[in-house]
Amino acid sequence: MMQRPLASSTPDARGARILPLHVAVCTGESGGWEERAHVLSSDVLRFADGALDVILVRHDHGEAATLDVSIMNAGADPLRVQAVELAFDFLGHEASSLRFLRHGWQSWSFTGTRALDEAGEPAFPSGPWLRGMYHCVGVPGPRREGWHESEIVSLVGASGGGPAALVGVLETGSAFGIVYLRPGGLDAAGERSVRIVAELRAEIVLEPGARRDLESVRVAVGSDANALLERFAELWGERAGARRDAIYRSGWCSWYHFFRDVNEDDLLRNLDAMVSDRSGIPISLIQLDDGYQRTIGDWLHTNEKFPRGLAPIAQVIREAGFEAGIWTAPFAASAESRVLVEHPDWALKHGDHWQRGTLNPDWSADGWVYALDTSRTEVLGYLEGVFRELAAIGFTYQKLDFLYMACMEAGAHDPAQTRAERLRAGLLAIRRGAGTDAFLLGCGCPLGPAVGVVDGMRIGPDVAPCWDMDQPRVIPGLERVLPSTRSAIRSILNRVFMHRRLWLNDPDCLMVRGRQTRLLPHEARSLADVIALTGGMTLFSDDVALLGDAERRLVREVVELGREVDAIAPRGSARLIDPLGSDDATRVVTAGVGRDALLASVNMSEGPVTLDFALGAQGLMPGPHTVEPIHAAARAGERAPEQSAVPTRKLIAHESAACRIAPARDWVVFCDFDGTFSVQDVGSTLVRARLPERRAELWQRYEDGEFDAWEYYVELFSGFDCPREEVDAFLGTIDLDPGASELVAWCAKQAVPLRILSDGFDYNLERLQAIYDIPFEYASNHLEFEGTQWRIEPGGRNPDCGCGTGCCKRAKIDAWRAAHPGAFCVHVGNGRVSDLCGALAADLVFAKDSLAPALSERGRATVPGPGESPVSDSERKNVVVVGAGLAGLAAAWRL
Ligand code: 9PG
């Protein structure tokens, strides 16, 4: 029997789809696994000799499904439940080589894309304790050998597009979720699967009769990888009550220049510098980082570098008109901290000892920092008090660091709480103390439990004043999580989808100084471009005294661009082009603001690349566009990007190019009237009806070259005695092309001038505008009724043109170009007499009827239309879109 997919891209379940495989649980101290096959519907599955029920509630949404997972102790004894796993098969991906998003557990954890190879997650070389700082579990069990690991969520598909699958845990602070993936086998039909497991970590003792909701697992398939991630984040945020409406934050942070040596004078000097250049550096927040505290854990007591304590600091910052922010590591404490000296039982335990949270020789006498146990209500009360006090002295912005410590694998006072719950409880206590209006920033924070409590979240490793890692000794396994600008950029890009769906993304600090840094100027600008284009918070971290004018301007530009991008989030927010592409290649991030698209391409490779902006922008917008470099000021003096229609630029290693791509503002559309804007050709229809013989004769003489197009009119009108009323009545029978009003509306909306170019007569055009109530500007010949006679005058003869018409379209287009240098001229037409000379003068032609073959005879490139012929990236001069009536034109422009 064919299994009903959980998520499927097609109703007949032949395309990309996710099938349920099994449910398994891990119980007892030894951690053995037990499996039950096939999740087909909402279900209760029995495990552990009937002692444990796993309750699944399935919600289907076509291309996606969610499974709510709960557990219940149905037995008579307390039962340790370690984890529950749901296994799936992803089929129909159509790709021979797949990549996946390897998403990290906490802020600093590696988040990037990898090949879904047979090797699986590399073994961690430096022991479980260190692994446990960056991963949910320190020791992945033998069941995970050969599997790839991604925490919370993963996305799998081919780089460059195609069907993709997402499996993710909508974490709300009940439990942590881990996604494991590996290439699967061939099924009966020869299709290769990807095996995906979602594991929910319970790690609790469940009392008899107790029931616990773990988290919900979402599975989804689709062809738009960005949309899969964005939708996941949106739902996740909704479930967890995300705080996503905080105002955009821009500021200054002490850490990445002064580090732990910061003192009161440094801070005040920088504050003064910002006060004296408010418009030059338009920021609103001053945040003091690590270095002020007496010891880790005693946040209200300063060291000798801040002799007056914290209150005056907050006060001067606020009096200067800035928001005051401060760094703490609230769940960390040194052995000598007052909190641990007075309450030695407040630490999480490792056996009989305190649980070590991190090692930092600068932070404590023995170098160790220990983790507080937030499953104790006294600890929560203490935390609430600390943050109430910090708020009372004026700090309304809290950078909460090393938050993973609350949920390390350790012995806690309350074994019925999950680790995720411990973290959430700790954060909620801080929120109670700091107040609902305070801005809480998570850092070093496992993401799930913080959604709904924090306003901002650090979404990557620390930046550093150098591109690659800058450590005398690198601890094996931490190469890609310790401070480095490269690693920060990787995470900023790969987590862009979270911004304003879960919180405000904090990309970490911008550094622009040219001195006292090993970040080369083009590397600093790559970081600047990525921060600006992803629209997250913008804090910079330099000693302002070191900055020159261009550097200050760069700060300002990043703050302003960041604000602009943030303003459109989350709808229309920034996206990675090719989210499953390689992090070691050029990565492109785009954001659409109004009619413009912003685009930054960062060369993450170690050699030069040549960048084709237009290719990168593919699909972003219809029609030709202008490409202007962003940070023009800061880049002045560098080689200018080429201004060709398809700009290319060579990027050296670690260099970026950021540009604003705007639809060319100087577009103009020239549109023929008879047979193009109108369905019938007004003049020839009338003359054919009234003077059929004379018309045939004159037309033959015109064809024979006896006279030109205007002289033909003169001959024709010499004997034309049709009464005015009859002409007017005839005009009432003329239909406009169904696309005519659409074209007028589109041009108005885009502020693109539209000019009707007609070798017909103004008399008709005026009447038809009134009849249809469609106003347009035009150029044409003149016709008026004088007593009993029709009199005509040419609208613009052009002896230099072979067209011979009364109103030479080429001359009109050339005149426009002279008045609007650089204009991009579009011509829409159908005839081979007057339209041909106009079409040959235009940059882009929409042609139908006899104009199309007339142009191709003259070697003009043609594209079949309508509908599938947007102006291509490589905007070619005189491309002719064939067969496009005005309705087709609308389709071709994806109006
Ligand atoms: C202050 C700093 C800054 C910085 C934070 C955090 O060992 N580690 O992996 C590690 C990572 C980050 C880190 C320190 C150590 O920096 O991210 O912005 O506030 O603390 O000490």
Number of strands: 43
Largest beta sheet: strand ordering: 4-5-6-15-12-11-8-9
- Give the % helix: 25-40%
Query: Biggest sheet: strands, sense, closure?
Result: 8 strands, antiparallel
Task: Give an account of the 3D structure.
The protein has 895 residues and is of the alpha/beta class. The protein has 24 helices and 43 strands. Helix 10 runs parallel beside helix 11 (549-567). It starts with 6 loop residues before the first strand and ends with a helix. The site of 4-nitrophenyl alpha-D-galactopyranoside has 11 residues, from loops.
List keywords for this structure.
single chain; 895 residues; alpha/beta; 8-stranded antiparallel beta sheet
Give a brief outline of the structure.
The chain is of the alpha/beta class and 895 residues long.
